[in-house]
Amino acid sequence: MPVNYKNEKILTNIIRYSLPLLTIVLSLIITLLLYLENKTTFEKEKEVLSRSFIKKNKKLIHEEVQRVHKYISFMKESTEEELKESIKSRVYEAHNIATQIYNEYKDKKTKEEIFEIIKQTLGSIIFNEGRGYYFIDDKDGVKRLQSLNRQYEGKDLSNFEDANGYKFVKTIIQTIKNKSERFDTYYWYKPHEEKAYKKISFYKYFEPYDVVIGSGEYVKDFEEKVKKRVLEYVNLIRYADYGYIFIIDYDFTYLSHIRKDYIGKNVDEIKDAENKRRVLKDLKIMASNGEGYYSYVQDEKPNTKLPTKKISFVKGLNGWDWIIGTGFYQDDMEQSLRNKQKELNEKFFSYITNVIIFAIILTFLFLFISIYISKLLEEKFKSYKKEIENQQNILAQQSKMASMGEMIANIAHQWRQPLSIISTAATGISFQKELNSLSDKEFFEATAKINESAQYLSKTIDDFKNFFSPTKKEVEADIKHLFDKTFKLLDAQFKTKNIQVIKNIPQVKFKTLENEFLQVLINILNNARDELIKYDQDRYIFIDVVKEKENLIIEILDNAKGIEDKYLSKVFEPYFTTKEKSIGTGIGLYMSHEIISKHLNGTLSVQNVEYKYKNQTFKGAKFIINIPIY
């Protein structure tokens, strides 16, 4: 009887718990298999995505560079044709002007008088940023008009030779004899340069005086104009999210780049120059040999400012010695991979959710079935026990009660584990369903950056607003603080023009009209900047401030080769300027002199000085402001 009862208990437990346990085990196995399948699928997707990403982006950057290279090559190859059209158009314009003047006065004035009017009219026309002018030659090779070189007028230049020995004036004489027009090419010297440059001219016969009217332009000057136009266009090119075209010359000077502070700078002037120079050397070799792909680590990605692996495609432009290129960042692929992983994980969790729900349903179903079966068995055993009840009534009853208590305790104990598993699984599903991909940290970092930029813009706006606020009230100011405010307004311009400012400015307090004094400093510094950018050299501005007794002396010195001696006494006159009309009005230094002398009771003067700095000899203009402190 004890053996039979033991078997009964074992059989009941097997019936009651085997199916639920089997369901849970199968669910765990299915979950594990799905996880492994998800991981394998992701690795395959990652490999395919990586190959596809690199292939697609290599094709994209190749097409972008080829397109830009084709455009620049077209502009380069059409430079001389465009130059010829420009010169020819100018000469035709001058010819029409001369014809109109002649026709208007031929019955009113002598031919000599009319010719003088034509000379004065054409001689006053200057174009191409001060380089372009008209000339008139007669059949004897005598220069009748030379706007920018009056010393040649009236001289016989028939035997003039260019740098290669070509007597181009003979060609002009032949054009007059043929009563025709033509282009001519020769090599001539620019002002203040020893090297001869290719120059294209156009001559057109003017019958009333048996002369030619002509004009010319250096190919290099026109080519520089074309280069500038090309670079302005390239600087605007953007594609994809952060794609841009960079252009670097063979001397490693940045001509086009997404970072505006790089443009015009040589690699040696930029942070991490040693690493950049190594990369650029490789790119130069690749570009000079044609084209190619190059993989390297860029020290700062534009939108993250972090070192990032990059693949670039470069192509060389012969003749201009340019490296044209663009590239893509491999970390952009990581975002695509994260999106793909997220998609696979969502599928995986969907599968797991369905498996667990199905397992829970099966578990409850099997528990219900097992309990039902166990109850049937109990009824059978009860019937069997009643048959022997008369023989062992007390013993059977005690045994039955003990078995019942033991069974209930065992059931309670055995349920604890599967119920715990079900509860844990349900809680985990709810938790994962509530997950949010955007963390608080990411959100607050983003809002902090926006707030920081807004504060900076606001501060910049305040700086400019304060400068332009009109005031005639004297205030106590600090000269160092005034220079700081000045450079807040000018700093960006000076940096882009590679102008270094060496300051020796102590703190000195004095009473002044602050905004008017700022205007003087800005005028003088802007004037120095405009002169410095004319020269391709190291650009310096030195500022020295000295307090002498009751006076404050401010010296501002540049290395822009100074002011011509004949202009020194005129620089403070109204409307006097040595700049082109499109650049200067001649009013800035005049107003500065008026403010210092009449409003601040001081003096403003200028002189040319020679000095040494870093073992180099420079010449420049020194502006001296002397104002009373009290």
Automatic annotation (TrEMBL):
GO cellular component: plasma membrane
Residue stretches in coiled coil: 374-401
GO molecular function annotation: ATP binding; phosphorelay sensor kinase activity
Compartment(s) where it occurs, according to its Swiss-Prot or TrEMBL record: Cell membrane
Enzyme superclass (EC): transferase
InterPro entries for this protein: Double_Cache_2, HATPase_C_sf, HATPase_dom, His_kinase_dom, HisK_dim/P_dom, HisK_dim/P_sf, sCache_2, Sig_transdc_His_kin-like_C
Transmembrane segments: 14-36, 348-373
CDD domains attached to this UniProt entry: HisKA
Annotated EC: 2.7.13.3
Residues covered by the Histidine kinase domain: 410-630
Domain of life: Bacteria
Annotated catalysed reactions: ATP + protein L-histidine = ADP + protein N-phospho-L-histidine
Swiss-Prot/TrEMBL keywords: ATP-binding, Cell membrane, Coiled coil, Kinase, Membrane, Nucleotide-binding, Phosphoprotein, Transferase, Transmembrane, Transmembrane helix, Two-component regulatory system
Keyword Protease set for record: no
Topology relative to the membrane: Multi-pass membrane protein
Any one Pfam family match given in the protein's UniProt record, by short name: dCache_2
PANTHER family in the record: PEROXIDE STRESS-ACTIVATED HISTIDINE KINASE MAK3, SENSOR HISTIDINE KINASE
Record protein name field: histidine kinase
Lineage: Bacteria, Pseudomonadati, Campylobacterota, Epsilonproteobacteria, Campylobacterales
